[in-house]
Amino acid sequence: MDPSTERSRGGVRCCLWRLTVLLLSASSLPAATALLEGLYCGTEVCYDVLGVSREASKAEIARAYRQLARRYHPDRYRAEKPGDEEAAHQKFLLIATAYETLKDEDSRRDYDYMLDHPEEYYQHYYAYYRRRLAPKVDVRIVILVTICAISAVQYVSWCSSYNKAISYLVTVPKYRIQATEIAKQQGLLNRTKEKGKNRRSKEEIREQEEEVIRDIIKNKIDIKGGYQKPRLWDILLCQLVLFPYYLSRYVAWYVCWVYRFTICREEYGEEEKLYLIRSNMRMSQAQFDSLEESAKQTFLEKQLWIRDKFEVYKKEREEEMKAKLATDPKMKRYRRWMKNEGPGRLTFIDD
Predict the structure, then answer these.
(1) DSSP assignment, residue 76?
(2) What is the DSSP string of 178-217?
(3) 167-198 burial string, b = 16+ CB within 10 Å, else e?
(4) What's the fold here for domain 28-133?
(5) pLDDT lower than 70: segments of the chain
């Protein structure tokens, strides 16, 4: 046989033998060799750290953790050699990490999956950091608490504004006189004088009269706008709860509007005309309700629900406002100040 042929066959046999040894070595590697530093217990198996099997129950894992924690806890551990304290501290941190990994069912399931499928590196990284960076509190609870807090602040603010409005109206002579007359008609201020032990001082009588007048103003006067009486169903929480109801009402109203006034060509009633006027003016319902009835009648007389007539009315109002501002002494002083000493003018002040 040719020597060169024999050498080539020997080289092939050597390569085949090395490849066989490499494959046998790779197949005999344990799963722990695929563990990555920085994930869970690093290059150590969490079960081995606690000294339990993969079939261990929660109780067995907790028992093993308590025994190892008592042994390696920094407050209990007594070092025999210098430097053992740091090693014991790192051991305690590893034990705590293993327990945190195995005590939770979801985390333990992900860890077992990593041991069984060591080749899926990216999936393991994603599952690990998704669990670590996920918020500890349910987002729905956070949203609910935030909405409740906003609703509470909203209601308290409305109550404060309403009480300020009532306190102001009590001091207005017009409303005070009317409330006093109503109180006298109802017999709330015409009581007989008290005698003996039941006799009250003038201050007590005055305080009671003020309370009576305040209650009458509160019950008789309908305040609109931002100072109206607070209602629970107007706060954010109730509005969100009732949103499906309001949406269904709006859809039904819109369909009815289109059917009546677009398809059937019905004439607008007073309520519909006022709605169109409010839409043209871009005012909320509360703002429009705060207007006087005489102003609303003026709007109806001028037929402002018609878009073209409203545009003419709007231009007339703008011209009137410009003319009023041009003749207003305060505006003249302001324009004079802006021209001579406004914020855009540089001056030197001599001391």
Answers:
(1) T
(2) HHHHHHHHTTSS-PPPP-GGG---HHHHHHHHHHHHHHHH
(3) eebbeeeebbebbbebbeeeebbeeeeeeeee
(4) Helix Hairpins (1.10.287)
(5) 1-36, 79-83, 134-137, 190-200, 221-227, 337-351
Residue owning tokens 């059917």: 259
From CA 29, how far away is CA 202, in angstroms rounded?
Answer: 100
The whole-number pLDDT of residue 159 equals 87
Q: State residue 336's pLDDT score.
A: 74
Mind listing the pLDDT tens digit for each residue in 25-55?
434 434 444 466 778 888 888 898 899 998 8
Tokens, residue 234 = 């107007």
CA 333 vs. chain centroid, Å, equals: 46
d(CA 30, CA 181): 97
Which of 277, 339, 338, 337 is CA-nearest to residue 307?
277
pLDDT score at 30? 40
One-letter identity of residue 15: C
Is the torsion defined by CA of 303, 308, 311, 317 positive or negative?
negative
| Residue 108 CB burial class (10 angstroms; 0-12, 13-18, ≥19) | middle
CA distance 21 to 24: 5
Q: What is the pLDDT of residue 351?
A: 43
What pLDDT is stored for residue 16 in this prediction?
52
The pair of structure tokens assigned to 145 is 């608490």
Task: Find where tokens 């509005």 sit.
Answer: 239
Q: What are the boundaries of each domain within the chain?
A: 28-133, 140-190+203-237, 267-328
Sign, Cα dihedral of 271, 272, 278, 282: positive
Cα separation, 92 vs 95, whole angstroms: 5
Both tokens of 320, joined, read 């009137």
Spatial distance between the Cα atoms of 180 and 198, rounded to a whole number of angstroms: 24
Q: What are 74-102's pLDDT values in tens digits?
A: 777 776 666 677 888 888 888 888 898 89
- Token digits for 169? 């109206």
In whole angstroms, what is the distance from residue 235 CA to residue 223 CA?
A: 18
Distance CA 86, CA 134 (A): 31
Instruction: Check: CB of residue 285 under 8 Å from CB of residue 275.
Output: no
Residue 81 C-alpha from the chain's centroid: 56
